[in-house]
Q: What sequence folds into this?
């Protein structure tokens, strides 16, 4: 019996040290890239150390901010990130399961992939990696998928705060990839006054619109329609592009998120949007691209972003109004 207090103390120390490691993610120091231009910025924002379901409001101030400077990621204050003005920004929200190593490697690849279509004259821009707790926490493929699907949505509260600060003074592109589309859609939904059973309400400081790109989105096909799960999200946007792959082997299993015997919806990233007509009331440009020919039977975003013809379509339909200074 006397061992229990000691065990509790050791457990507390283990948890605390894990949070400290998350706040100071030394792993990302292994992942450094060159900048295309000296005035490009790459940031890594992380919530991996924060509460996942409770005390979200009290924890917003503990989001970790890191900026790549030379050959190192340096810890920064939120104030420095939020002080940027007229710095066109892309925020990439990764999918799951995803370790810090995988997120860092993939997102830095994506930074360089998109440079193929961003003009050489674009010497100032900010690329933001949004890293949320998407590690495996349960066993079993279906259980894990369901756990991450639920875990993603409270993260939208944290992301919403950052988007709100960013969009106030900068043109912003939000990219939601795979399960990251749940995080991103929830954030936009909350910013437009929407409610969520998984997150507190938000009180935005800005009503400026952002451009929204969903890639291989792990959300139901109708969830962005008015009255649906993220039915207010597109009110926070000025244009929306959905990139889907009808041969995606992972999203093919998306219906397994739902119990047998009930209607089992398919994913936006697998079959595309349910109805464009149902989105007309938002009054924004809405477009889709089926990338099955380029991506094939892969769920990896890099199969999409390394394909120049797909990038050209994404550029003309969504990125150009933000990143073309001409």
A:
């Amino acid at each position: 019996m006397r061992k229990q207090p000691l065990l509790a103390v050791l457990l507390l120390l283990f948890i605390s040290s894990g949070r400290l490691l998350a706040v100071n993610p030394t792993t990302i120091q292994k992942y450094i890239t060159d900048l295309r231009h000296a005035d490009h910025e790459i940031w890594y924002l992380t919530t991996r150390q924060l509460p996942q379901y409770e005390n979200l409001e009290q924890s917003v101030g503990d989001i970790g901010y890191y900026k790549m400077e030379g050959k190192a990621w340096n810890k920064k204050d939120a104030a420095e990130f939020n002080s940027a003005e007229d710095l066109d920004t892309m925020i990439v929200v990764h999918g799951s399961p995803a370790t810090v190593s995988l997120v860092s490697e993939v997102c830095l690849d994506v930074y360089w992939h998109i440079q193929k279509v961003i003009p050489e004259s674009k010497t100032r821009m900010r690329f933001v990696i949004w890293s949320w707790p998407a590690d495996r926490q349960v066993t079993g493929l279906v259980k894990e998928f369901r756990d991450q699907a639920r875990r993603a949505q409270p993260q939208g509260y944290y992301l919403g705060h950052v988007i709100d600060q960013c969009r106030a003074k900068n043109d912003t592109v939000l990219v939601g990839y795979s399960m990251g589309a749940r995080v991103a859609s929830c954030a936009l939904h909350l910013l437009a006054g929407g409610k969520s059973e998984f997150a507190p309400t938000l009180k935005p400081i800005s009503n400026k619109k952002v451009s929204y790109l969903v890639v291989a989105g792990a959300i139901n096909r109708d969830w962005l329609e008015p009255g649906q799960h993220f039915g207010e999200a597109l009110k926070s946007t000025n244009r929306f592009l959905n990139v889907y792959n009808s041969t995606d082997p992972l999203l093919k299993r998306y219906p397994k998120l739902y119990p047998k015997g009930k209607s089992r919806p398919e994913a936006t990233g697998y079959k595309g949007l349910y109805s464009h007509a149902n989105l007309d009331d938002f009054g924004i440009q809405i477009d889709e691209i089926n990338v099955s020919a380029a991506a094939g039977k892969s769920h990896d975003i890099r199969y999409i972003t390394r394909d120049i013809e797909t990038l050209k379509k994404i550029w003309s339909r969504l990125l150009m109004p933000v990143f073309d200074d001409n």
User: Anything to note?
Assistant: The chain has one domain: 41-323.
